[in-house]
Amino acid sequence: MGKGKRDYRICFIDYMWYVAEKWSEREHNNLNGRMLLFLCWLFAILLPLAIPLLFHLFSWMVAFAAGVFLCFLPGVFCKFRYTPGRREALREHYKGLRQPGRQLGIIVLVAIALTVVDFALMSYFGFIHGA
Question: What is the pLDDT of residues 47-67, one digit of tens each?
Fold first, then answer.
């Protein structure tokens, strides 16, 4: 390890972020890494799991305030995690990445499937009530 270099641990969230960044660079669209992590957080975790649980356990004011606060977590996470050094380490780690569009599609499909399963489980366990 050279002077000024760190040994970063790479995880699946880094992979998701990097695939979306590569796709955004290639296609010049707004779906960058921060937006993908926010959408996955919102639709796969926050809406089906956290929001019904918060409304079930707390009053609506506390649950609403906590939900708004939780919406900002992915942005803060990306701001602190993806420094220029980490970005360079991810570029080096995934330099042979092929077909980012296909991999991004798989990530989105898995997030949609996870969202459906989360809603089904929350409904089954009684946190989400039908009309």
Answer: 887 888 888 888 889 989 998
- Tell me the three state secondary structure of residue 22: helix
> Shortest CA distance to 67 belongs to which of 51, 53, 81?
51
For residue 127, give both structure tokens: 């946190």
pTM listed for this prediction: 0.82
**Structure-block tokens of residue 24:** 């955004």
User: Residue 35 in contact with residue 51, Cβ under 8 Å?
Assistant: no
Q: Spell out the SS3 assignment of 82-128.
A: CCHHHHHHHHHHCCCCCCHHHHHHHHHHHHHHHHHHHHHHHHHCCCC
Q: Which residues contact 74 (CB under 8 A, 6 or more apart)?
A: 34, 37, 38, 41
